[in-house]
Amino acid sequence: MGDVMQQATMTQSLRRAVLVVALLNLTYFGVEFAVALAIGSVSLFADSVDFLEDASINLLIFFALTWAAKTRARVGMAMAGILLLPALALLWALWGKFTNPQPPEAFALSITGAGALAVNLLCAFLLARFRSHGGSLTRAAFLSARNDAIANVAIIGAGLITAYIWNSVWPDVIVGLAIAAMNLDAAHEVWEAAQEEHRAVP
Asked: What's the predicted TM-score (pTM) here?
C-alpha cells in the first residue's frame, strides 16, 4: 500500500513539474521566435521550434501519465517523430538564409541564447529527478531539455564568434545544423526506449 501511495505522489509531482516546464517552453518560444525573425538567425529559429516542441511534449506527458503503460509506450514512439520537427524547420530556415546571406546581429544572438540556456537549465533541473519515472515520455522531455541546454551554449558561442572573429552567416548556420543533429540522436534514443517499454508490457 505504501508503494502505491508513493508512486501516486511521484506521479502527481511529475505532472506538476511537466506542466511548469511546458509553460516555460511556450513562453520562451514566443521570445526566441520573435528575435529569430528580427535578426535572421537560423540557430535561433531552429531552437525556437525546439521550445514549441518541448512545450507540446510536456503537455502531452501531463495528460498521458494517467494512461496505461502500453499507451504511454505508443505515445513515446510518436514523440520520437516530434523530436524530428526542428530538423525539418531548419531546412526552411536555411533556404531563407542562403537567399539572403546576412549574418545575424551578434549581441542579440548571444543574449537570446543565454536566456534560452537559463530556461532549459531550469527545465532540466525540474525534470532530472523524474527521468526514470514515467517511461519513454519523461525520458523524451529530459533528453530534449538537456540537448537544448547544450545547443544554447553553442548559440552563445556563435554570437561571440560572429562579433569578434568571423562576421559570417556560417557560425549561426553550423550551430543550427548541430541542433538538428542532436534532435535526430534524441529521437533515436526515445524510439528505442519506447520500443523496449512496449515489449515489456504484456
From this structure: 0.78
